[in-house]
Amino acid sequence: MSAADVVVDYLRQQADVIAGRAEDVLADAPDAVHRSRVATRRSRSALRTFTALFRKRRVRELRDELAWHADHLGAPRDAEVLKERLLTALDTLPAEASFGPVAERLSASLDDTHARAHASLVESMRTPRYADVRAQLARFVAEPPVRGSARSLGVEALPGLLDRAVDRVRRLTERAAETGEDAHRWHEARKGAKAARYCSEALVPAFGDDARALAEAWERVTEALGEYQDTVVAEAYLATEAVRAHEAGEPTDGYLALIAVELGLRDDSLRLGRAALDAALDLAPLRP
Predict the structure, then answer these.
(1) Spatial CB neighbours of 198, under 8 Å, sequence gap ≥ 6
(2) How crowded is the C-beta side of 169, counted as CA atoms within 13 Å?
(3) Residues 6+ positions from 270 with CB-CB distance below 8 Å
(4) Is residue 34 helix, strand or coil?
(5) How many Cα neighbours within 13 Å face the side chain of 184?
(6) pLDDT digit string (tens) for 93-120?
(7) pLDDT tens digits for 240-256?
(8) CA 178/CA 85 separation, integer angstroms
């Protein structure tokens, strides 16, 4: 296989998931939005990391359109995840405490957010733009726009391109570490780690266990930093809901207790994320 063949095969797998889950996404079937969102992210990461193999304009256009679709997929999924997280945390609080209608308010608010976000997603998928995204991706994998200079490249060219993605994570990590607990910078480091993870996955067919080990290491990074980011999002959401509850004459102790839970998780998740980053960055790079 050529280097481009490996990447195109990976993109084809993601295109199949996006196409195969489309009807389930419209129906809001369990896990459909999540799987389609991940496939979209994997596609964008592969296109970015391995862009040197393809014509730049085609890559840029497709990545931009996939980002548009990913944004629509993200909103309903985020509401769904946040609801499950907060209601699970609420169950850990003392049953005898009088917190008022916290569960009811959180459920109603996040159900409404989810319903509106899913309706917007469905509307976007009924547009010509969505049809064009799918068509662009299908054309890309059916007739890959491989650069002339890349057509003769074998799989040995791929590790060097993955190294660039890892170097980007290293820079983002150093930048985040300079400020300690800047959530935005750690979120950027997490996104870079996701790209390294997905693109390591893409190379498993060509490089086997070595690529798989890298993917698993980067997965540990994204899981830990994902937990850290989730605490940031949850805290901000709970603060907003506490204000609304106060304005409605309801007690706010439950929201404050949930915020305390999130803050208690934050330090540990960042510590684990940084340790996982150090471990992943210390791994020997993939080599032919």
Answers:
(1) 41, 42, 45, 46, 215
(2) 28
(3) 181, 186, 224, 225, 228
(4) helix
(5) 0
(6) 887 667 889 999 999 999 999 999 999 9
(7) 999 999 999 999 999 99
(8) 30
